Amino acid sequence: MSEVTTIDAREPRPRKAIFRLPGAGQALNKGLVVTYLGIMVLLPIVAITSKAFEDGISGFWDAVSAPQSVAALKLTVICSLIVVVINAVMGTLIAWVLVRDKFPGQRVINSIIDLPFALPTIVASLILLTVYGADSPLGIHLAFTKPAIVVALLFVTLPFVVRAVQPLLLSLDRDMEAAAESLGARKWLIFRRVIFPNLAPGIATGVALAFARALGEFGSLVLVSGNIPFQTEVASVYIRGQIEFDRLASASAVSVVLLAISLALLASVTLAQRWGLRHDR
Amino acid sequence: MTGERLTRWGLRYIALAYLALLLVIPLGYMMIETFSEGIQPVLDSITEPDSIAALKLTLLTVAIAVPLNTVFGIACALLLVRSNMRGKGIINALIDMPFAISPIVVGLSLVLVYGTSGWFGQPLMDLGIQVIFSTPGIVIAVVFVSLPFVAREVVPVLQEIGDDQEKAAETLGSGSWNTFWRITLPAIRWGVSYGVVLTMARALGEFGAVSVVSGKISGQTETLPLYVQKQFETFHSVGAYTSSLILAVIALATLLAMNLMRRKENDE
Amino acid sequence: MSLSSSKKSRRSIQALLVLALVAFGAIVVGCGSSDDSSGGDSGSVNLVAYSTPQQAYEEHLEPAFNETTDGEGVSFTNSFGASGDQSRAVESGQKADYVNFALETDVTRLVDSGQVSADWQNNKYKGIVTNSVVAIVVRPGNPLGIKNFEDIVNNDDIEVVTPNPFTSGGARWNIMAIYGAALNSGKTPEQALGDVENVLSKTPTQSESARVALQAFIGGTGDVLLSYENEAIAAQLAGEDVDYVVPESTILIEQPAAVTVDASKAATDFLNWNWTDEAQQIWQEQGYRSVNPQLLDKQKFPVPADLFTIKEFGGWDKVADEFFGDGTGSVFEIVQDLGYSTE
User: Fold this and answer.
1) What is the pTM of this model?
2) Domains by residue range for chain C, with CATH
3) What is the ipTM of this complex?
4) Which entry of B119, C94, C213, C294 is 20 to 30 Å from A125 by CA?
């Protein structure tokens, strides 16, 4: 405790505008982050990218522009976009209800949110097939349709937005809200002007992650998506087929396109956030 | 006032209905299936040697992947939010990449890098280290797919809390490490703990990437999700659901532990 | 104070990092070396096979082999998975002494990479350990009375489950069975392709693999499933409630096994033992047709009047190109047309 409050006279350090780790610490930190990312993420991605361009740019383009690949990519992107829109709304709502509301069973609900990640995706696929398939106990028959793909993706991406917004809501200063309320601001206005801007980074993070995951998802779809080429075949299943028939370059090329799409979305989210921050201040 | 209550109830029930359809009913169904033939088959399949071996391997993988990704995640988030180094954009972009790659392709890429005909496979093999089709490959695959969570959960929290307190502590002469432990870490603990839980859950459940690099040797390089898949393929659905339930319970236990830690902290 | 604490902090960061790295390195090395000890000696076999015969190997064949003089004390390390995945794993470095795949091309891949000797088919049964046929799996009691592919073509309300021929090698057997049966019934190639189109248009789902298709069917999807006979029997042996029909006209499926070039003696012994009467009988009990015509149990495995092979269409290389080639293959075009018509 005393260390925090001890003022050190011997070594007056220049105070910088932004909090920083000390020089060596920061360099070390930077070294750690860069090395780790380099080995763990960059290396495999470089391997895939170089495989994708094994037959030159024309080989890459041929693989990506093959009609079956285009159809699969289109379906994947459309489904993923639908999924993140639903996630953004429902995820925020769920986080809100879990943090601000109080009702019996809330704890239980809160603790099962992460389960979609822990279950092997094949299990997700199988139980979704049972609940929404031909013998659906709910009378909802979705299996093998495009909505089934969306439902499966919603299942596996559920935790992203919820868990990104929750900590923000928890650390959100309620005084601000109270102040706004005492000034007579309406609830909706408070949400839009006070709460939402604070949650926005979390929602953006959740959306970006969910989108990326939805683009690449495979396991949870194997039983519930129809897998019919040109109709209900998503990109990852198409990629699986390319691998099965030893077209590794083509499989890598389609993966690289998925990466690029997810990068593009991430970039736009970051830009939007920056824009939002600037207008916030 | 009644309007407000109506809104609150409305929101609550919309959220609950959504969760019921998407999560609770499917999970409930899984429970029913698990115990559809009574308790004995469930106990039998838990004590199956291959199942125990798979559980051990899964726990080992998680025990390596989660701490590594937590340390990395916090360091990375600090770097992204609290420093103005160049190339932040690249790091920011790289973090999410593990999700956008289809799990099978993750496996494929690891084979391209560490397989015997890959970049480093042979040299490592000469040193007596087999990466692919062995435990290290599985660990790397799991680290890869669960890498973004902690960083991603912590970044928005760091942004949200701002750096006023940290600066104040600095002004008062606190060392950076000290500031981190006493000011920053407590402030971001919610984000960190959610990140850890998500990392844990994802690390437990990963199938696609692991299936490519594991070699699927019964009792040796089979993780629990792979074992689940195999159980389904050999029509042992009770065994498969039981193993899934074990995974779910471990994930729940992590969350519970986090909550307990938090409560203790709040009591102090 | 701050100097020492900042020094301390630096040191502890370093310590933490070093610790993490050392732990990681130790685990990598530890695991790597511990796995090495499993292979090598002549008394063990690394077995890599496709998923269906897992039970046959683990519970029946391996214990029976251990009873023989050659097989005494031989230990097995088993790996099962999708045929193509397993073959690719061996190609990229998975330890294997004995391999058993669902498709001949999966062995060919290892011949090309130099891991299996080019003369692997130089034996009495040309490297094939078991046979099967494309069968029609139906609901208990065969309520729709399906006897052959023609019945599926002529039934307008039927739902067919068959794997996606562009993600599953096994699915291509089904397509060629429909095509060949139509040809042999006197139809022209165009009409035969018409039958293929007809069946594919009745699929609510084309699963990623044969196993997933079977799971979907058991889960209640569809009226019939196109699958291997041995898959259907495996499901029955496991207590699943399904029946199956062997059409009078269908295609013969041949499942190859081989040893790798640096296989242990035990693996070679095991491969040869697989062709003994004893082993072939075990295979038959598990739902596979014996490759030895004298042993074939014709009660259990009705021999179709018109049993054709892939060679009638020029072998897999030619078929892969002519029927399934990207953009040009006739089945590819059918699938593409079906896709666009329902958009």
Assistant:
1) 0.85
2) 44-130+254-290 (3.40.190.10), 132-253+304-341 (3.40.190.10)
3) 0.84
4) C94
